Amino acid sequence: MLDVTVIEDPEAAAVSLDPIRARLLAELAAGPASAAMLAGMVGLPRQKVNYHLKALERHGLVELSGERRKGNVTERLMRATAASYVISPLALAAVQPDPDRFRDQLSARWLLALGARLVRDVGSLITGATKARQRLATYALDGEVRFASAAERAAFIQELTAGVTALIRKYDAQDTEGGRDHRIVVAVHPTLKQTEPTEQTELE
């Protein structure tokens, strides 16, 4: 089972978003189960669960884990193909965000468009690398910082921009044959404050 996989196909995305099927995916991410076992978990008839499992299996969201005999019946044990799923903007290709349409480094919506492109591109790279059985070289840095004031945040962003720009200029080798282009995305945004399930999430 993969830790996370990207759904690029529109039909697979629609299947995964169905509330019942999403619940089945969550149960199967926890461990293999048969239709009969899942029926008890989600409170649906076994035949209904089987119907939903076939739809999930058809789109590669669940797979056969094994079989077991129960009386005169052979039960199929299914499992999720990943512990979690991300829907790529490719599933909504006609209306996917395009960060090149406008550029505003201080726009939260432009940041969102960049994030969507990141999901799309890395998802496609993972799909291609998996098919080719090749390792995908990536790097990510994640951290948090608390600014004393808006002025401190502005100064940080100014220094960050200057530092990253200097690194790009230092290592950029546009005229080198055989080199490979890489995209760099650096984001700064307020941390989401986690609240109780009954409360709304708010910004710090």
- Kindly report the spatial arrangement of strands forming the biggest sheet: 1-4
Number of helices: 6
Low confidence ranges: 199-204
Portion in strands = 5-15%
Rg, nearest Å: 22 Å
> Helical amount among residues, as a percent range?
40-55%
Outline of the structure:
By secondary structure, the chain is an alpha+beta fold.
Outline the fold blueprint.
Layout: E1 5-7, H1 10-17, H2 19-30, H3 35-42, H4 46-58, E2 62-70, E3 73-80, E4 85-87, H5 108-132, H6 150-171, E5 192-193, E6 202-203
Parallel strand pairs: 1-4
Antiparallel strand pairs: 2-3, 5-6
Helix pairs in contact: 2-4, 3-4
How would you portray this structure in words?
- Strands 1-4 form a two-stranded parallel sheet. It has a two-stranded antiparallel ribbon with strand order 2-3.
- It is elongated and about 70 Å long.
- The chain has helices at 10-17, 19-30, 35-42, 46-58, 108-132, 150-171; strands spanning 5-7, 62-70, 73-80, 85-87, 192-193, 202-203.
- Helix 2 crosses helix 4 (46-58) and helix 3 (35-42) crosses helix 4.
- By secondary structure, it is of the alpha+beta class.
- Helix content is 43%, strand content 13%.
Core attributes:
single chain; 204 residues; alpha+beta; two-stranded parallel sheet; two-stranded antiparallel ribbon; 6 helices; 6 strands; 43% helix; elongated; disordered C terminus
